[in-house]
Specification:
Blueprint: H1 2-25, H2 43-55, H3 61-82, H4 86-121, H5 135-181, H6 185-190, H7 193-236, H8 238-285, H9 287-292, H10 296-349, H11 356-372, H12 374-395
């Protein structure tokens, strides 16, 4: 299994590198020139632009990264916490509590099943009394109840978090929309409407993605992995715990490395999506000129070419995701087999009860899915930071030549009346 996992990982890295090469060498076809800050640009380019804007030039990557981190943190704190009423703040904290309870209850369910197996082994054949009153039946009932309780806590967490995330997205969208209306006409004339619309909606969704990925995927998975390692250390010893740590690290490393390779293809797909939207809007706006020049066939051919390029990149993303899932499942399956074999050795020597194998299998199965999604969540969080940075640039007030913000126009009274104007 380990050999298969390493082979799949090598194929995955090679395939994603090839996809990235194809994406980087693909020809950029845009009908109107899209300004870089409204496209999906790499994080390094955005970091350099932030540093140049703050310091007036130069290249200070570390200071720029800290500045961008503070800026993104301020946006998250403003729209996800400060702009929320106290009822939604309480719901946000309760969602965290439900998440922690669901993780702990799910782990306790495996121990309840192990207890049921131990009690079932001691049942005497033909023992009097109803079966439902035996300790084994009670332990099985506790196991099922804990499993259902964990699922209910997860669903309650989703219900509590959904209005918080939607309110944060609405707050950010309204702020950006208001700032876009306050910009001058020359700014609007220089922007492609289709690409601007894509950046606006993608940046608004990025806030929800970042909140969900960091608060309810990355942090809970790290907490659960640490808790499982502590349980394995106390129940099975350092050898099994070390094997589990290596398995967890290999699974996460494969996901992070492969998703970093896929991120270049994802960014290129976003650029093609922006170009496609800009082409569509501009072609419909100039339909009279197209008809006058009898260029309908050329316009349709150009649109079809952009659609084919976008579909080709999305197919590449789908194939790389399939290879990633296969490599991660192979690595985690090989590690799980090694852990269970080590535990079986301890069972044969009498140092470990046979029911503990059920506990180990349950804990590892519960952790397998979020652990395999950790790499994807990390990459999604990074891409969300890029998209959120683009919409922050969109909402940034314009600065005049003297370095001062452009003055706002005065608001006219709602009721002009006679001679009020």
């Amino acid at each position: 299994m380990a050999v298969v996992a390493l082979t799949m990982a090598a194929l995955l890295v090679k395939a994603t590198a090839g996809f990235a090469t194809v994406a980087s060498s693909a020809q950029r076809v845009t009908l109107v020139q899209v300004r870089p800050r409204f496209g999906v640009v790499c994080a390094d380019a955005q970091v350099r632009s932030v540093a140049a804007r703050i310091r007036g030039g130069g290249d200070a990557p570390l200071d720029a990264m800290r500045s961008r981190a503070r800026e993104l943190g301020g946006v998250l704190a403003t729209h996800a916490w400060c702009a929320q009423p106290w009822s939604r703040r309480l719901a946000f904290l309760l969602a965290f509590a439900c998440m922690a309870v669901a993780k702990v209850v799910g782990m306790r369910a495996s121990f309840a099943l192990a207890r049921a197996i131990d009690c079932a082994a001691t049942l005497a054949k033909g023992a009097p009394g109803p079966l439902l009153l035996t300790p084994a039946a009670r332990a099985l009932g506790a196991h099922i109840g804990l499993r259902v309780g964990a699922v209910l806590c997860e669903e309650l967490r989703r219900c509590l978090f959904a209005p918080v995330a939607q309110h944060a997205v609405r707050s950010l969208s309204e702020a950006v929309f208001r700032e876009a209306h306050e910009k001058e006409s020359a700014w609007h004339d220089a922007q492609p409407a289709g690409g601007l619309d894509r950046v606006f909606h993608r940046g608004a969704r990025a806030l929800q993605t970042l909140l969900a990925a960091v608060c309810f995927n990355v942090a809970p998975t790290i907490f659960e992995a640490c808790a499982v390692l502590v349980v394995l250390w106390r129940q099975c010893g350092a050898t099994v715990c070390g094997c589990a740590a290596i398995t967890f690290g290999a699974t996460v490393a494969i996901g992070v490395v492969a998703n970093e390779q896929r991120r270049a293809v994802y960014a290129e797909a976003n650029r093609c999506d922006n170009a496609l939207s800009s082409f569509f809007v501009h072609s419909l706006r100039t339909h009279e000129l197209v008809k006058l020049a009898s260029a309908e066939s050329a316009e349709c051919a150009g649109y079809a070419e952009r659609v084919r390029r976008l579909l080709r990149l999305r197919v590449a993303l789908g194939r790389s995701l399939a290879l990633l899932n296969a490599a991660q499942r192979g690595a985690f399956g090989g590690g799980t087999l090694a852990i269970l074999l080590l535990a079986l050795r301890d069972v044969r020597s009498g140092r470990l009860a046979a029911s503990k194998l059920v506990v180990l299998n349950g804990l590892l199965r519960q952790l397998s899915s979020p652990l395999q999604q950790l790499g994807s969540s990390y990459t999604a969080a990074r891409q969300a930071c890029v998209d959120l940075g683009a919409i922050i640039e969109l909402a940034r007030p314009e600065v005049g030549t003297e370095g001062k913000p452009r003055p706002r126009l005065p608001q006219l009274p709602a009721d002009l009346g006679d001679g009020a104007l």
